[in-house]
Amino acid sequence: MNYFLRKMGFYVVALWAALTLNFAIPRLLPGNPVDILLAKLQQRGGTVTPETREAYALLLGGDDSQPLWNQYVDYLNNLVHGDLGVSVSYYPAQVTDVIAQSLPWTVVLVGIATVMAAVLGVTLGAFVGWKPGTWLDSLIPATTLLAAVPYFWLALILAYVLARVLGWFPLQGGYDVVLDPGWNAEFIGSAIHYGALPALTIVLASVGGWLLGMRNMMVSTLSEDYVITAEAKGLSPRTVLRSYASRNAVLPSVAGFAISLGFVVSGSVITEQVFSYPGIGGRLLGAVTNNDYALMQGLFLVITLAVLGANLVVDLLYGLIDPRTRARS
After folding, report:
1. What angle (nearest 5°) sits at the alpha carbon of residue 234, between those of residues 233 and 237?
2. What is the CB neighbour count within 10 angstroms for residue 181?
3. How many CB atoms lie within 10 A of CB 133?
4. Of the N and C termini of the chain, which has fewer Cβ atoms inside 10 Å?
């Protein structure tokens, strides 16, 4: 019980530190979202007065003329009440609405692609590590090369070959624009068709890391005493592989998988930009470009909660799966 309480206490402190950084980092960037919004107002022929500026500052989440400490207190108070402010980039939309519209696209796309890459990489890595030095080792340089290729370059190649030349997939977008979004077979089929190519990019770029990590752990695990003992008992190779070698070798991959799921929320900014996919990546890039404090803070908050939550789950599961973790702690 003390182990779990210490972990919970650590993550509470980590959450507070992350929220503080989330407040500070956007304010260290040059520019001001209020001035950006007022510049747009002037371009449309509007008149800007001190009262107008103060009203817009309050609308965007607080008066930036106040001391930084007061802004910080207001920021925490708004978080407690679920108020993330108004987005400059998508004014007058609320940040919560912008995130709610984009988050499901990224979670489905990157989530499914991450699960597929992890399962495929770990499975192949287990077999490659079980028979080191065979032809299966040729998978390592091929997948490692794909992992080393820049995301945007791989995405552009796949877009050109599979979408432009062969015409197998749509080139851009998240679904056919003539369809109305909804939970019906036609729209879901269109979303799957449009998301297949971005998902393939993520899988190809990620599977090499999973395969190499699992393969190296398998090679190390095969020299352990319990594996040698299992083989000496005359157990079948399949049983040794499944119940002894891979079961222990996969533990670091489980931790990596949980952390990867935490980063699913942040999405793949470059891939989403290449394919004009309506996910979190485009929203995050737009928020940084327009100095949209509220949207940046909202996106960073969601990403932070996802990553901390994934790490917490991993720590708690490790404590249950491997009692040695609790003993060392």
Report:
1. 120
2. 12
3. 8
4. N
Cα separation, 41 vs 56, whole angstroms: 11
Q: Which two tokens stand for residue 89?
A: 């980039």
Per-residue pLDDT of the chain (329 residues; tens, 9 = 90+): 676 777 778 888 888 888 888 788 767 766 666 666 666 666 666 666 666 666 666 665 555 566 777 778 877 887 888 777 777 777 777 888 888 888 888 888 888 888 888 888 888 888 888 777 777 777 777 777 777 777 778 888 888 888 888 888 888 888 777 777 777 788 888 888 888 888 888 888 888 888 888 888 888 887 777 778 877 877 787 788 777 777 777 777 777 777 777 666 665 677 777 788 888 877 888 787 777 777 888 888 888 888 787 777 777 776 666 555 555 55
Query: What region, left, alpha or beta, does residue 82 occupy, with left being phi > 0 and alpha being psi -120 to 50 degrees?
Result: left
Residue 33's pLDDT is: 64
Virtual torsion, Cα 200, 201, 204, 209, nearest 10 deg? -130
Q: Secondary structure of the chain in the HEC alphabet? A: CHHHHHHHHHHHHHHHHHHHHHHHHHHHCCCCHHHHHHHHHHHCCCCCCHHHHHHHHHHCCCCCCCCHHHHHHHHHHHHHCCCCCECCCCCCCEHHHHHHHHHHHHHHHHHHHHHHHHHHHHHHHHHHHHCCCCHHHHHHHHHHHHHHCCHHHHHHHHHHHHHHHCCCCCCCCCCCCCCCCCCCHHHHHHHHHHHHHHHHHHHHHHHHHHHHHHHHHHHHHCCCHHHHHHHHCCCCHHHHHHHHHHHHHCHHHHHHHHHHHHHCCCCCHHHHHHCCCCCHHHHHHHHHHCCCHHHHHHHHHHHHHHHHHHHHHHHHHHHHHCHHHHHHC
Cα–Cα distance for residue pair 255/317, rounded to 1 Å:
9
Query: How many degrees, rounded to 5, is the angle at CA 260 between CA 254 and CA 263?
Result: 155
